[in-house]
Amino acid sequence: MHENTRVLGTPPAEPRDALRHFRDIRLACETDPYDVHCDLAAGAAGFVLLDSRRRTDHDRCHIPGARSFAHQEMTDAALAALPKDTVYVTYGWGPGCNAGTRAAARLAEHGFRVKEMIGGLEYWQRAGYETACAPSPAPAQ
Fold first, then answer.
1. β-strands 47-51, 67-68: how paired?
2. Residue-range domains of the chain with CATH
3. From CA 127, how far away is CA 3, in angstroms rounded?
4. Distances from the Cα of 89 to the Cαs of 34, 36, 51, 56, in angstroms?
5. Which residues does the UniProt record annotate as the domain Rhodanese (predicted)?
């Protein structure tokens, strides 16, 4: 009956399959700026926030407390130096940037527990949360 619609052309998943997908897969692998902000504000321990963009981008602006670890720098040797008993939360610039995804995949490939903060720095800033940003240079007079 709905074969001609874009939304229902592919039937929705059975509820048990949707629950497994959303709760057991997506929420196990993703978090968002709100949850990260709440945990950081409450002083919650248990995860390390990794800015997965290039170090120059991190130096320009990042989430306070985030460590710079660009996905391009995640060599076997660099990853071997990280503690395995920590959960890592990665982020990139925003939805149009896959740095956080690449970093999360690399960490998982090496046996680390990891989540990606969806929305990245862009959605962190849109929410009005504090950032550590270098001042912009003054315009030439």
1. parallel
2. 30-133 (3.40.250.10)
3. 39
4. 13, 9, 9, 20
5. 43-133
